[in-house]
Amino acid sequence: MNRTGNEEKKVALVTGGNRGIGRAIAIKLSEEGYDVAVTFRSHSESVNELERICRGNGSDFLAVRADVSSFEQAKNLISQVIEKFPRIDVLVNNAGITKDNLMLRMSEADFDSVIDTNLKGVFNCTKHILRIMMKQKSGSIINIASVVGEVGNMGQSNYAASKAGVIGFTKSIAKEAAPRNIRCNAVAPGFIATDMTEILPETVQGEILKTIPLGAWGKPEDVAKLVSFLAGEESSYITGQVINVDGGMVM
Ligand SMILES: NC(=O)c1ccc[n+]([C@@H]2O[C@H](COP(=O)([O-])OP(=O)(O)OC[C@H]3O[C@@H](n4cnc5c(N)ncnc54)[C@H](OP(=O)(O)O)[C@@H]3O)[C@@H](O)[C@H]2O)c1
Question: Which domains does the chain have, with CATH numbers?
């Protein structure tokens, strides 16, 4: 990002920024010149390390402990971010969980918690940030969906439903907010090496690998590069899209 000395720094909020894909996104955006806010629920040491990296890149940094599935905590999160920074240019709804099981074994609690975090969490943060972006007459919202939301997956009916919901939500917000120069896009990763996928049995990992034409799992940085593009001016004519980062897995 090229900037003159007088220009105000842009601000990005990444939910679930303390590890995995969210952490890579926070680092990439700080490298691109954004001030960065992240949420975390645990792992405070990793947040300290992230802060050191972002500040080392010249970014101001804020970490807020927040559970995005809570409407009130999301409201408080956005208040804290706007109190520290004068604006919020980019929201990356990244926080997400899995609670996999075949339908016959899936508990109501496991269905609800995945929907509450992955889908309601996106609603909660977007709801509280949209008014601010509307006043600014600018903003970019990027929702981390999944290829599973496009094609489904055995044992992931809760997760697939949440991510398909995120895709529908993304397109609706893109239509609603476009008149105020706010864009909303979804990124759909395939299989990316993080804590979320590390728990899969080795045999399952091997089977997944066979379905990826580029022959390798993705890295969090692969997702971060696309998010950075969608955040900034270079994607100014792109909204309402779902872009896969999956090594060609779904095409
Ligand atoms: N890895 C993949 O292959 C893959 C593929 C497709 C889509 N995705 C999506 O990419 C996103 C990031 O996944 P990841 O692989 O980086 O997962 P991860 O390593 O498990 O990290 C998940 C992040 O979400 C945060 N989080 C979870 N529940 C939260 C809640 N209720 N409130 C606030 N934060 C919460 C976690 O915070 P704590 O550390 O505090 O728990 C953590 O920062 C998710 O939306 C996931 O569905 C991942």
Answer: 11-245 (3.40.50.720)
